[in-house]
User: What shape does this take?
Amino acid sequence: MDGDPTPIAKSCIWYWTLKIMIGLWLQELLKTHLMFAVREEIEQLKEQISDLTDRNAQLEYENKLLKARASRETLALLNSALSVDD
Assistant: This one.
């Protein structure tokens, strides 16, 4: 009987082993939840970047058309207004 742990010691070991197992399980659950949330956010950001890229291309096209049809006086006024803002 010298090396045998007492029933109280056994239950204490079991208690702490269970606590550790629950802690590890909760840690894994949290990690999974956070990874899911991050992936979801990344997808939303990718969509937003795509939308903004498309919008930027449209605006650049419109700007090019407007500049091509504008008179020299209008372009000069535009350039002078832009240089004052800087």
Summary: The mean pLDDT is 91. The radius of gyration is 33 Å. Residues 6 and 12 are 10 Å apart (CA to CA). Residues 7-69 form the longest helix (63 residues).
